[in-house]
Amino acid sequence: MKKSNFNQNLHAIVVGSSTDEFIYYTLKVLSNYEVDFVVCENVYPAVGHLARNTGRNVLVIGRFGQLNREKGRFFHIAGEKGSLCCCLAEACSAQNQKAAAGTGIFFINEAAEIKGVVEKLLAKSLSCSPENNRTSFSVKKDFPVTKAELDALLGV
Amino acid sequence: METHNSSSVKDSRNILLIGDINRAFSDAEGIKKLPCEVYTNMLDAIDAAAKKSFAAIAVIMPGAPAKISSALKALREFNAGTKIVLLAQMYEEPTAMQLTGLSSNGIAPADNYLICPIQTKKFYESVFGTRTGRPVQTAEAAAVDTDQQEKIRMLEKLATEDELTGLKNRRYIWEFSRQIIERTRKTNGRVTLLVFDIDNFKHYNDVYGHSAGDKVLKQAAVLMRRCCRQHDVVGRIGGDEFAVVFWDDPQRKTAEAAEERRSAMTDHPTEAIFIAKRFRKALEKTELHLLGPEGKGVLTISGGLSSFPRDGSTIQQLFTQADKALLEAKRSGKNRIYLVGKPQNDIADIE
Predict the structure, then answer these.
(1) How far is the C-alpha of B350 from the C-alpha of B266, rounded, in Å?
(2) Beta-carbon neighbour count of residue B229 at 10 Å?
(3) Spatial separation of the C-alpha atoms in residues A60 and A17, rounded to whole Å
(4) Cβ of A146: how many Cβ atoms within 10 Å?
(5) Among A66, A69, B109, B343, which is least packed, fewest CB within 10 Å?
(6) ipTM score for this prediction
(7) In sequence order, which residues have a C-beta less than 8 Å from that of residue B338 and are 6 or more positions away?
(8) Which among B16, B47, B73 is the top mutation candidate for probing chain A, defined by the most A β-carbons within 10 Å of its own β-carbon?
(9) Which of A18, A47, A76 to substitute to test the interface with B, most B CBs within 10 Å?
């Protein structure tokens, strides 16, 4: 796979330990696409990075349990900043997930799905992708996407 | 992880205050008069700290210590160079001490801690170390500030510690017990109070002099401190009278503590009984310095042990019950620790 230039229009905040299989896979995908990312061990530093990256297209990635801290407050803060949260769904917290859905949060069921999410978001927000190896960037002004757009984007 | 340098200018007086102010201040209303930004949620506070620099950050410690370390780390990262002060309940002091000690990377999660409840005015003065509350700018002023901080520390020490033994004083023991009972009421835990005094202490004073008596007190204090767990609080509450407050280890899992409570012999916490036994054994093996080798096993104590909620629901009730058991132990021939309840049980009889 060819790599594009540094995809600085999208910034990913990955929450969790890099020893976690899902996080490890996510980091690999983000590295392949040269997406600017930061790894935070939990939501506390993550919320700081969210604040420091206001104005950028931010995608937060983590397991639902890791992100759903402080009574879901993290999701609210991310939502207020127009960031998207991509959570790996966990069977044990299906009810909480249902309650959290619809506030800029979307779920994936398997780690492998993160690749498609990153690809689609890059395609949506940038005019280049790893496949076409274009070097020009044109940020889509209306990013982040709405829930409906995102559903369409992800084929839900 | 990325690091950022804050570009905003540091507000010379603004404090970022995090947590439930009613839990920390005796006059919480007074906070409105101070230049504070108050957040009850840690995530909101970190969000604010990442956007703006503060002169100081004060964190009212949450009940559970598990998450506070990560949160403090994040506050440090996003408000680099800002003083972080913890506001801890008395029973949270061991955790606060850990958090203000150096970690493996040489940086402590927090810089200092204050014990609650605290007056808002005193809090502001303590955070900035000056009466005006303005951060110290010059070297001369910094020296004055350090001197003042040192005096404050000395006064705080005098207010809470027994000068002779270095143990906590009566006032501290009472306030600590009051706070820990309130906390335990919510967590369904146990608090045990041991009150003991040194048998025939008057004899040591009369025969060997008061300085010899003081040495006996110091020896008993050191020995008791050594026998206790780090989080237990040991104090001297009168002439030769001591008190120990045993409480559930905050680091310990609830399930383990519950398992221990299922003691076959007694419904008093077995850990407290075990420590009291250990103390008596240590006394038996100890030589009383002023008597030399002949002083081995001479030093004995009598005590009473009461538990919350079993023997009382307030600190007054626990002290009264423990005192009664102590008196009973004295009447029964000394050198024993009685548990509250009938029939009177010496802890030595408990397996």
Answers:
(1) 8
(2) 12
(3) 14
(4) 10
(5) B343
(6) 0.77
(7) B303, B304, B305, B325, B326, B328, B329, B332, B344, B345, B346, B347
(8) B47
(9) A47
Among B330, B340, B280, residue whose Cα is nearest residue B308: B340
- From residue A87, alpha-carbon distances to A22, A59, A91, B118, B221 in Å are 11, 10, 12, 42, 55
Residue contacts between A and B (CB atoms, under 8 Å): 59
Q: Per-residue DSSP letters for chain A?
A: ----S-EEEEEEEEES-TTSHHHHHHHHHHHHTTEEEEEESSHHHHHHHHHHTTTSEEEEEEEHHHHS-TTTHHHHHHHHTT-EEEEE--GGGHHHHHHHTTSSEEEESSTTHHHHHHHHHHHHH-S--TTTT-------TTPSPPHHHHHHHHT-
CB-side neighbour CA atoms (13 Å) of B288: 20
Please name which of B39, B37, B33, B36 lies closest in space to residue B19, comparing C-alpha atoms: B39
Q: Which chain A residues touch B42 with a CB distance below 8 Å?
A: 44, 70
Answer whether B308's CB lies under 8 Å from B190's CB: yes
Give the whole-angstrom CA distance, residue A123 versus residue B63: 46
Q: Looking at beta carbons, which residues of chain B come within 8 Å of A13? A: none
Query: Rounded distance, CA B6 to CA B87, Å?
Result: 25
- B223's CB contacts (< 8 A; 6+ apart) are B279, B282, B283, B286
Distance from C-alpha of B346 to C-alpha of B336, rounded to nearest angstrom:
6
Return the structure tokens found at B179.
């706070």
What tokens were used for B38?
A: 């108050």
Gap between the Cα atoms of B335 and B110, Å rounded: 45
Can you tell me the distance from the alpha carbon of A87 to that of B155, in angstroms, rounded to the nearest whole number? 52
- Would you write out chain A's pLDDT as a tens digit for each of its 156 residues? 333 344 557 899 999 998 999 999 999 999 998 899 999 999 999 999 999 988 888 999 999 999 988 888 999 999 888 899 999 988 777 677 666 666 678 889 999 999 999 988 888 765 444 444 332 223 333 334 455 655 555 554
Do residues B274 and B232 lie in contact, with contact meaning Cβ atoms separated by under 8 Å? no
Find chain A residues with C-beta within 8 A of B49's C-beta.
48
